[in-house]
Amino acid sequence: MNLAGRTILAALFTVVIAGVSFAQVTKGGGGRLVGTWDAEVHITDCQTGNVSETFASIASFNQGGTSVGSTSGRPQAARTPEHGVWRHIVGNRYEFKSKSFNFNAMGIATGYVVLRHEIELNESADAYTSEGGVSIYLLNGTQVGSGCSTAIATRFDF
User: Which of 41, 95, 93, 37 is nearest to 69 (CA)?
Assistant: First the structure.
């Protein structure tokens, strides 16, 4: 086989292997979270689970394990969008962690929030439920609060 034939064969082999790898990840649930999601977030009492507040959020889980999101729970002038990471656990289970900065009424940064949730994606990959908690920090890293929340989300799609 000449050099051109070997090059074409190698390229074809690479495409086939990439396709098989993607199919295996998708079948196992690993790639199914990628996309943008509309969520209804419920702030809950960590002990009783009682809901104290409900608001809308939107989150995008990107290929490669990064995420970005925004919420209607606080004015955008009082906090930055959430930036984070996510990973596949097993089957339809995922977890994500995000961080956003908080500001006072004068626009001065006062601290940051780290949110962690575990997600259960439905079989058709068009909805999920999640639950987890938030840790609240001063800018120097001192934790000053915590809380719990749940969410119900549907895929934002055409």
Answer: 37
For 25, the domain range is 1-30
Q: In the 8-state DSSP scheme, what is residue 63?
A: T
Instruction: Domain count for the chain, please give it.
Output: 2
141 plus 86 within the same structural domain: yes
pLDDT in tens, the chain (158 residues): 544 443 333 333 333 333 333 333 444 456 799 999 999 999 999 999 999 999 999 999 999 999 999 999 888 889 999 999 999 999 999 999 999 999 999 999 999 999 999 999 999 999 999 999 999 999 999 999 999 999 999 999 99
Q: What is the pTM of this model?
A: 0.79
